[in-house]
Amino acid sequence: MTNPTRKRGRPRLLDRDVGLDIAARLFWERGYEGTSTADLTKAMGINPPTLYSMFGSKEELYRRALDFSIVRENSRRLEILQSSRPAYDALKLYLYDIADGDTQPDKPRGCIVSTAVLQHAEENASVARMTAALREASMQILKARFDRAIEEGELPVQTDTDTLARFYGAIIQGMSAQACDGACNAQLKRLVDLALTAWPGKRST
């Protein structure tokens, strides 16, 4: 008696969140321009038509992967900034958390947003604008917290909160770049401590 020939079934579909997680890590490691469609399909175990049917395009996949990655980090960091902690304490904890994120041993170094697509080919200008908008949004979140600190008497009323937010935004981007170059967690936190000496308002005792 012979066994009937098994029919080949359809390939197992890739879970969308799994795909976004894989794509985020690849873009994080190699950057947008350094990650090809072939790299993405190989890592996900799918073919190009499946990638395009699921995510539309490489650019759209990058946008979704960024959103997917950011949501996991930002919920915790927003809670830190929007909590009832004094502004100085919230800022310190926020920056320390970023230093931790930049130096996770099981993930790529740096931040997927802070140093992503800073230099780019002309055809990728829309991707660069999208990523720049995310960095700008982060600085506006800091500015809003500093505006609240003025209202609560923790910063002088004449404080230029936009420039203050951009100063700490520059620290955040710099930490990402230095982490990519090999700076360790302790080095980044010493940098944070130094940056906090520029805080122009009330500090914890």
Could you explain the architecture of this structure?
The chain has 205 residues and is an all-alpha fold. It has a single domain (16-196), classed as Orthogonal Bundle (Tetracycline Repressor, domain 2), CATH 1.10.357. It is 64% helix and 0% strand. The chain has eight helices and no strands. The chain has helices at residues 16-30, 37-44, 48-55, 58-82, 87-102, 125-151, 161-180, 185-196. The longest helix has 27 residues, at 125-151. The chain is elongated, with a radius of gyration of 21 Å. The protein starts with 15 loop residues before the first helix and ends in a 9-residue tail after the last helix.
Structure summary:
The protein has 205 residues and is mainly α. It is built from 8 helices and no strands.
